[in-house]
Amino acid sequence: MALGSLPRFRRRVTASSSSHETHKQSPQPSIEDSATLKRATKTRRNAIAISCFCYVVAAIFLILVEIGNTRAAPVLDDIYFFKLDLSDILPQSAPTSLTLQNSIARTLGLHDFYQVGLWNFCEGYNTDGITYCSTPTNLYWFNPVEILLKELFAGASIALPSEVNDILNILRIASNIMFGFFISGLVLSFVMIFVSPIVLKSRWWSLPVSFFALLATLLVLIASALGTAMSLIFKYALTSQTDLNVSADVGTKMLAFSWIATGFTALAFIIHAGLGCCCTSRRDIRTGRKSLRQVNQTSTNEKKGINMPKFGKTAATAE
To answer: Quick check: pTM over 0.90?
Structure first.
């Protein structure tokens, strides 16, 4: 009996060994396989693509901010920080030899309106549109007192509000800071479009990239805040004296473009900050920090849904 059962036992061992060898020889996914890496880092790649898209949109709107009001053009002449309307200005004094024109401002030698951009200012008449734009200048700031007094005819004078003289120095400093921050924010946002994909390699790259993403957000945010505050303060200062009969409009398009750019740079920063602790990178796979089995299991759970334990059925079975 014992001898007769021996061959049967050996056959079972042989079959088990053959099955084990077949299992060992079955192909396993390699971490060097590009398709495997793409599948494992799909979420991270999608997040990086969204951040690059955010920087592209931010750069486009920042370009619109910076080329706005640089010359008389159908689109550019509607992009400005603020616009002064002097068409019905009431002079403090005027010589009797002046001939009445289409507007009081034109009679005094002034233009009907003045609008201010990042690089220069433009002026014109309500009937003719923009007639002149100053040469774009680095670190430009708008000095209304100097410009208006230079254009007034001899013998004419206007009483500008004292608040305007008080804020001229603040206006100059704020304009210079705003100019530098908008230019720096645009350059950094453009560079980030090509730098962002590097964080696919490792989470360690997310640290310096997140720093520059935060810097770009702060630059655009501060520049937008300065532009908004400067426009509102200037409007308040010029309209505070009602007997001067001067109106000022805030450029909604310019401010909207700057704040849209701020929002997209902030969103890109949030994505890069999250990539520092979330989403599998290539280094996570190659160093074994996250195995392919875990990645595949996570992907399967995301597609099929995670099966929660059925406590009620388990308890009934146990009884």
So the answer is: no
